[in-house]
Design brief:
CATH architecture of the largest domain: 3-Layer(aba) Sandwich
Number of helices: 10
Shape: globular
Structural class: alpha/beta
CATH topology of the largest domain: Rossmann fold
Oligomer: single chain
Distance between the termini: 8 Å
CATH superfamily of the largest domain: HAD superfamily/HAD-like
Strand content: 15-25%
Number of domains: 2
Length: 268
């Protein structure tokens, strides 16, 4: 009997417009199983989905960098792992010098910052319905005392992505995790920010066995999460490398694949 469900958001629970469908909403609300979003997204980018699904259990943001509960329109932090300020400064200044055109976002628990509005930022705005605060990256660390949980780059093509990863590797920084999400996104978080760590925390918090947990995912950064559960349900649109970890295959994210998986593979 499954007692807790974990799910990635983009490419899994959300459709290609970045929205949770009515079919998924109805099934998740009615299944009676605590449901945790496990996402690279910031909390503010998760609120709309949390509210539509009426979720009250702990949620996981920044790939495990922040575990929290939504409470009275804000967040109640349970566990957090943020980036070292010196690393943020080194990464942002170096990449801006080497790749002045790459789209760059910086996230705290409550705010999304960028140094310029470009196509990548416009795309994120269309998906999240949020607007970034524009500030010079050199001034950001002086303008806020809030912890920085994630730096995100959006590359325009494979060539820019390769240069980005090479430039970051040359910095040889410790304490960071660099993960590619899809073809164009590169996300940097604390090396303690892993989806598996978030799930382990919730597992201990609720005294859950591995056999009592199920997870839905589609991307490389979901693999640590999928290994944490006995029932790993993979989306039809998932990358081929991720499908190797499937206990079950479900429909795609544009076909209410999470709802289909709950109805067909979980005892509800």
């Amino acid at each position: 009997m499954i007692k807790h469900i974990f799910s990635d958001m983009d490419g899994t629970l959300l459709n290609d417009k970045g929205v949770v469908s009515e079919g998924n909403i109805e099934t998740i609300r009615n299944c009676g199983i605590p449901f945790t979003l496990v996402s690279a997204r910031a909390p503010m980018e998760m609120f709309d989905t949390i509210d539509k699904l009426n979720l009250t259990s702990a949620q996981i943001a920044f790939n495990g960098g922040l575990i929290y509960k939504r409470k009275n329109g804000s967040i109640d932090k349970i566990s957090e792992h943020f980036l070292d300020t010196n690393n943020v400064q080194l990464i942002t200044s170096n990449i801006r010098q080497q790749l002045p055109t790459v789209s760059m976002s910086i996230y705290t628990a409550n705010n999304w910052y960028t140094d310029k509005i470009d196509d990548g930022i416009k795309l994120e705005t269309s998906l999240t319905q949020l607007e970034a605060k524009v500030i010079n990256y050199q001034q950001l660390l002086h303008a806020t005392s809030d912890e920085i949980f994630k730096i995100m780059f959006i590359a325009t093509d494979e060539s820019q992505m390769n240069q980005l990863t090479n430039d970051l590797a040359k910095l040889q920084l410790s304490g960071i995790s660099i993960q590619r999400s899809g073809n164009n996104y590169l996300e940097i978080t604390s090396d303690q920010a892993k989806k598996s760590h978030g799930i382990s925390y919730i597992q201990k918090l609720n005294s859950l066995n591995k056999s009592e947990m199920a997870a839905f995912g589609d991307g490389h950064n979901d693999i640590p999460m999928l290994k944490m559960v006995d029932t790993a349900i993979i989306m039809d649109n998932a990358m081929s490398e991720v499908k190797k970890f499937a206990t079950h295959m479900t429909k795609s994210n544009v076909e209410d694949g999470v709802a289909y998986g709950i109805k067909n593979f979980l005892e509800v």
